């Protein structure tokens, strides 16, 4: 069993920063892509950013873009992905979920989700 455990969420004022962490543990053969999704109140879950095992990154490009404010990074030795969030806005308020796509070496890839961490941006 593979588990993803997120940490780092909380309450922050507009313009502030937070750093989310997500550590994968368990019977891990390989991890392909790791990413962060978020789900705001009354909204669907959406991709925020993703990073491959080789370090290539992708940032969602929607109306309230996070590109330029958020940075995703990864420590493969620790099976951990990070999301540095700067210049936070109230619109960033959401539950942030970690996602990982894993390999088994002999079968199809599969994915796991973390339990989510609440980020609230408010004065």
Explained architecture:
The chain has 123 residues and is mainly beta. The protein is elongated. 28% of the residues are buried.
Residue stretches low in confidence (pLDDT < 50, at least 5 long) are: none
Oligomer: single chain
Termini separation comes to 40 Å
How much beta, percentage-wise?
A: over 45%
Q: Give the strand tally.
A: 11
Helix/strand/pairing class, anyone? mainly beta
Q: What is the CA-based Rg, rounded?
A: 14 Å
The ordered string of helix (H) and strand (E) elements is EEEEEEEEEEE
Alpha plus pi helix count: 0
Outline, from the CA principal axes?
elongated
Keywords, please?
123 residues, 7-stranded mixed beta sheet, 11 strands, mainly beta, single chain
What is the fold's blueprint, element by element?
Elements: E1 2-7, E2 10-12, E3 18-26, E4 30-39, E5 46-51, E6 57-59, E7 70-75, E8 80-85, E9 94-103, E10 110-113, E11 117-121
Parallel strand pairs: 2-11
Antiparallel strand pairs: 1-3, 3-8, 4-5, 4-9, 5-6, 7-8, 9-10, 9-11
What would you say about this model in short?
The protein is 0% helix and 55% strand. It has no helices and 11 strands.
